[in-house]
Specification:
- This protein has about 200 residues and is of the alpha/beta class.
- It has two domains: about 90 residues, 3-Layer(aba) Sandwich (Rossmann fold); about 90 residues, no CATH class.
- Helices cover about 15% and strands about 30% of the residues.
- The chain has four helices and eleven strands; from the N terminus they run βββαβββαβββββαα.
- The strands form three sheets. Strands 5-6-7-9-8 form a five-stranded mixed β-sheet, with helices on one face. Strands 1-2-4-3 form a four-stranded mixed β-sheet, with helices on both faces.
- The chain is elongated, with a radius of gyration of 19 Å.
- This is Calcineurin-like phosphoesterase superfamily domain-containing protein.
- It holds the Pfam family Metallophos_2.
- Belongs to the metallophosphoesterase superfamily. YfcE family.
């Protein structure tokens, strides 16, 4: 479904937003924070989420069409698509969103080995570990002499509920932490109340 971009003002900031989906229920609020804008959200995912609840998309302060300055420490650092650092027991590890070469490329734990070879080609030889995400599917596997780790997702986990993450030191431990989803929804609703109310107008 399509929705027009609207603008609401809260605390002197003009936010770009879109609202669609059900008319009643607790809104599900998505805040685009670092890269891209509201157009970055996948319609197939958003339409499914909007079937039973209102969905609201916002560009955060200083992002895309919203005014103001980004108010996080990340603004003071160059944002790169990849970053590498030494990890105890795992050698030099490269951290990226999807794959080392593309922020939206999909590769899965059971992808063919020649596909992994293609995805990992061009990496410096001292990179022994790659930590990626994007698919939200937790896994650990060896591919062409490198350890590949996907810790999963905290906000949109694949499969079972919970905050999925990985402990790296000195090996790899995939973990899932249970949390009170209803309490989190209540907190998000309260925290965004100043923005949610004007958007309905």
């Amino acid at each position: 479904m399509t929705a027009p971009t609207r603008f609401v003002t809260a605390n002197g900031i003009r936010y770009a937003c879109r609202r669609f989906g059900a008319e009643t229920g607790t809104p599900l609020v998505f805040l685009q924070h670092f890269r891209g804008g509201m157009d970055h959200w996948d319609p197939a995912v958003m339409d499914g989420l909007a079937a039973n609840r209102p969905v609201m998309l916002f560009d955060n302060t200083g992002v895309a069409s919203s005014s103001g300055q980004t108010r996080t420490p990340w603004k003071r650092r160059p944002m790169t698509r990849r970053r590498s650092l030494p990890v105890h027991g795992l050698g030099k590890a490269l951290f990226c969103h999807a794959t080392p070469r593309d922020d939206e490329e999909v590769v899965l734990v059971d992808s063919r080995l020649d596909r992994w070879r293609e995805v990992l080609s061009g990496l410096d030889t001292d990179i022994r570990t790659v930590v990626c995400g994007h698919t939200h599917m937790p896994f650990v596997r060896l591919a062409h002499g490198r350890l590949v780790i996907n810790p999963g997702s905290i906000g949109m986990p694949y499969g079972r509920a919970g905050a999925h993450w990985a402990l790296l030191d000195p090996g790899v431990e995939l973990r899932s932490t249970a949390f009170d989803i209803e309490a989190a929804i209540t907190q998000v609703t309260q925290d965004s109340a100043e923005i949610v109310r004007p958007a309905a107008a």
